[in-house]
Amino acid sequence: MFVCSCNAYRDSQIADAARKGARTACEAYEALGNGPNCGSCLDTATEIVEQVHANRAASHSAFSNAAD
After folding, report:
1. Total structural domains within the chain
2. Which residue range is the domain that position 47 belongs to?
3. Out of 18, 19, 41, 50, which residue is the most buried by the measure of CB atoms under 10 Å away?
4. Please, what sign has the CA dihedral across residues 43, 26, 61, 58?
């Protein structure tokens, strides 16, 4: 799904940027080549980035607990 109409960024692109280290929506946009323009997409992009990092933390925690 398109998240950012101004830059034509999809949710998958934003999630991929987060998996590669972007910690905020703006960092994800910069990693994709452009910062946000109108800003109407930032709430959704932020949710995507936060979800990626929450999933990683949960996976890491589950792995750490299994190793104990």
Report:
1. 1
2. 2-67
3. 18
4. positive
Q: What is the DSSP letter of 24?
A: S
Q: Helices (DSSP H) in the chain: which residue ranges? A: 11-19, 25-32, 42-67
Q: Please state, in angstroms and rounded to a whole number, the distance separating the CA atoms of residues 52 and 66.
A: 21
CATH of the domain at 58: 1.10.10.1100
Q: How much is the pTM?
A: 0.84
> Residue length, the chain?
68
What is the residue whose two structure tokens read 């987060």? Answer: 18
